[in-house]
Write a structure and sequence with these properties.
binds the ligand Cc1ncc(COP(=O)(O)OP(=O)(O)O)c(N)n1; binds 4-methyl-5-hydroxyethylthiazole phosphate; 18% strand; three-stranded antiparallel beta sheet; binds magnesium ion; alpha/beta
């Protein structure tokens, strides 16, 4: 029942006879939160991570457009050597493209930049600050991703309120100097069978090894070099997306 004049919605719980009264704003917020959570799993399918160092002489805008055209579903800004102002400028160049395409734009490491730029969310590693604090500052609508290397860290991230976990490094990585290769890809099976939030694999993933991630119930893959480090970003995105879409199929696991 709705009284639009008073901008108040009345929700009646018939089962126990109790009712709660919610404002229109609160209701809209709740709907947005539900939508955020329900679509996140799909949005994480091909998660491109962009930093200027990886690009082969093209602009952030061009790289972003090509990746989205090829099927990238989520994007992270990961600039380790720019100051805040430079990162905000970069974001202002690519955010309109992501917004237009419905591709969430996640900021690596920095909650404040996420808030100021009104990006879709933030990704926090183990030493990038507390997830609970980020939630307090950013609110329920923003996506908060967390890093985990094992089951214990994944459970802790979920417990703290992370919306997804990035787990790696699956195959090592040339893009992150201190990345440690997982002892086994079966870590993914263990984590995905234990947490409810979506799990993304990261670290050295490319078109030749992505098939070995199938059947591990991952929401998707996060990639730097195999996407933004290539000459034809659109083609790389198409190939990776095609494979990422098939990851649910158990049969890919033994090879392609
Ligand atoms: C999707 C995703 N997963 C993991 C990471 C790694 O984050 P972190 O451990 O904080 O390392 P840096 O990326 O900050 O070097 C990530 N960025 N994204
Ligand atoms: C950010 C990050 N975290 C673990 S590995 C990694 C880098 C992934 O880059 P690449 O896909 O080039 O290995
Ligand atoms: Mg970090």
């Amino acid at each position: 029942m709705c009284n639009t004049q008073a901008r108040v919605l009345h929700i009646f719980y018939c089962t126990n006879g109790h009712s709660v009264t919610l404002g229109v704003k609160t209701m809209k917020k709740m709907v947005k939160q539900v939508l955020k959570k329900s679509s996140l799993h799909e949005k994480l399918r091909l998660y491109g991570i962009l930093g200027g160092e990886t690009l082969q002489g093209i602009t952030y805008r061009e790289a972003t457009m090509q990746a989205i055209d090829g099927g990238m579903t989520c994007m992270q800004v990961r600039e380790k050597h720019l100051d805040k102002e430079q990162i905000l400028k970069m974001i202002s160049e690519i955010k309109p493209i992501c917004d237009e395409a419905g591709v969430p734009l996640i900021i690596n490491d920095d909650i404040e930049i996420c808030k100021v730029s009104d990006a879709s969310g933030v990704h926090l590693g183990l030493s990038d600050g507390s997830i609970a604090e980020a939630r307090k500052l950013l609110g329920e609508e923003k996506i908060i991703g967390a890093t985990a290397h094992n089951l214990e860290e994944a459970l802790a991230a979920e417990d703290e309120g992370a919306d997804y976990v990035g787990v790696g490094a699956a195959f090592g990585s040339n893009s992150k100097g201190d990345a440690i290769k997982l002892p086994s890809l079966d870590v993914y099976n263990l984590i995905t069978s234990s947490v409810k939030i979506p799990v993304v694999a990261i670290g050295g993933i490319d078109i030749d090894n992505i098939g070995t991630l199938a059947g591990r119930h991952l929401a998707g893959v996060a990639v730097i070099s195999a996407l933004f480090g290539t000459q034809d970003i659109k083609k790389s995105a198409e190939d990776l997306r095609n494979m990422a879409d098939k990851l649910q199929h158990e049969k890919l696991r033994s090879g392609i």
